[in-house]
């Protein structure tokens, strides 16, 4: 299981520049839209403040992140497999010159999580063993990159794929607290 500092390091990798361009931020979101871990590139503060100076308004990037997180979760709830979202990722264009690159993590059930779930439902141990290694269709986590419109969408997809692969392995068996 990954620790928060490990998750932060993994997210920092996703905002490393490629040819001078980088996503503005990366976040791991709960299924409720709560940012669990977020990192910001140096360009984020500069980019946000430059765009908003024209409008004579400034707000905390964290406020924007909370809004973007809610947009991300709502888009995934609205989306179905028929919408072309078979591999759990999407791009959401925002009105302010940014876009969100999103990917729902495909977490694998771990042996201990499956056995615990099977025991609580009075299922047999063999049923628990069968569920080990199956993907969680209703993943409790979403990976989100906030990008400027000038950042290539293909690169954001590649970054999402790379980071999600590492997170999926490290968070194998993670279950969200259902009390929230």
TrEMBL record:
One of its GO terms (cellular component) is Ragulator complex. InterPro entries: Slm4. This is Roadblock/LAMTOR2 domain-containing protein. One of its GO terms (biological process) is signal transduction.
């Amino acid at each position: 299981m990954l620790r928060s500092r490990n998750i932060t390091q993994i997210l920092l990798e996703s905002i490393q520049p490629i040819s001078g361009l980088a996503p503005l931020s990366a976040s791991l979101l709960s299924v409720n839209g709560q940012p669990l871990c977020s990192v910001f590139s140096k360009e984020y503060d500069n980019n946000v403040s430059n765009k908003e100076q024209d409008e004579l308004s400034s707000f905390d990037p964290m406020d924007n992140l909370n809004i973007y997180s809610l947009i991300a979760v709502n888009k995934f709830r609205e989306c179905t497999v028929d919408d072309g979202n078979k591999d759990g990722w999407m791009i959401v264009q925002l009105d302010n010159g940014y876009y969100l690159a999103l990917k729902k993590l495909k977490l694998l059930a771990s042996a201990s999580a499956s056995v615990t779930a099977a025991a609580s439902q009075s299922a047999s141990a063999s049923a628990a063993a069968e569920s080990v290694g199956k993907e969680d269709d209703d993943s409790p986590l979403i990976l989100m990159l906030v990008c400027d419109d000038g950042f290539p969408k293909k690169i954001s997809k590649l970054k999402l794929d790379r980071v999600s692969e590492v997170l999926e392995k490290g968070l194998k068996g993670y279950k969200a607290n259902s009390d929230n």
